[in-house]
Automatic annotation (TrEMBL):
Pfam families: PilZ
Chain ranges of the PilZ domain: 101-213
Superkingdom of the source species: Bacteria
Organism: Paenibacillus oryzisoli
Gene Ontology molecular function, alphabetical: cyclic-di-GMP binding
Database matches in Gene3D superfamilies: predicted glycosyltransferase like domains
Protein name: PilZ domain-containing protein
């Protein structure tokens, strides 16, 4: 499907997110207006390539107008990152609802830790407190859940299974106590991998979690972008030497 081609997914406003890629983006702040190209849109962030990127500062409130083949989209946003030639801005929730993505909340690879303090047998409604908490290695995270690994499965063999509710504490640069529901389990080389969704997150920690996910999403995107640019440069150099 060509960029900009309209595709819907059930709902009346379910545009395919591809309509945004390579569309013209007009960014305005105060009395300054600049035009660029939207090159990335996933999860909470968008990237716009534009020559006057230096005029915009981190935290600037902006108005964005996107000219796509499926229509005109106008919304307000905030500049959250900048690098030569482009800006990273927030893709606000009300705008995200108009477009369909593979995941409602994209998962970001991380290297954090935590521990399981207890679990609940949902069938028997029993709650168990662990005298010796079980350490976990967090592999990925989103606003909807995490993926983690337990290296020593002998401690929990036959205990943790699908639909089991866990009481955990996550170290995300801040301590986050919450409840997780196990969605899946699979054997990995470094232990057992569990996919779990947040069953409850304290309201006061929800914003901190969003900031953590957003910061890591931006960092991951920049790392991948630089890796791709380096690879292309090396391929170009290799081709020139042949």
């Amino acid at each position: 499907m060509k960029h900009g081609a309209l595709k819907r997914y059930g709902s009346k406003e379910g545009y395919d997110a591809e309509v945004l890629i390579n569309c013209r983006a007009v960014i305005a702040k105060d009395d300054f207006v600049s035009t660029g190209i939207l090159t990335y849109a996933q999860g909470d962030i968008m990237e716009i390539e534009l020559p006057e990127y230096e005029v915009f500062q981190l935290g600037d409130k902006i108005k964005m107008t996107l000219y796509t083949k499926s229509g005109l989209f106008v919304f307000h946003s905030t500049v959250v990152a900048r690098e030569p030639g482009s800006l990273i801005v927030i893709n606000p929730p009300e705008n995200r609802k108009k477009f369909s993505e593979k995941r409602e909340f994209p998962r970001i690879d991380v290297k954090n830790v935590g521990y399981i303090a207890g679990f609940q047998n949902t069938t028997q409604k029993e709650q168990h407190h662990l005298e010796n908490p079980i350490n976990i290695s967090i592999k990925n995270i989103s606003m909807s859940g995490i993926g983690f690994v337990i290296n020593d499965n002998s401690m929990i063999d036959g205990i943790l299974y699908k639909k089991c509710i866990l009481q955990v504490e996550l170290d995300l640069g801040f301590d986050m106590r919450c409840r997780l529901e196990i969605i899946r389990k699979e054997k990995k080389e470094d232990g057992y991998y569990y996919g779990a969704s947040f069953e409850s997150v304290p309201a006061e920690q929800s914003n901190a979690l969003r900031v953590f996910v957003l910061r890591n999403q931006i960092q991951t995107y920049f790392e991948q972008k630089r890796d791709e640019e380096f690879k292309k440069a090396m391929e170009k150099k290799s081709a020139a030497n042949q």
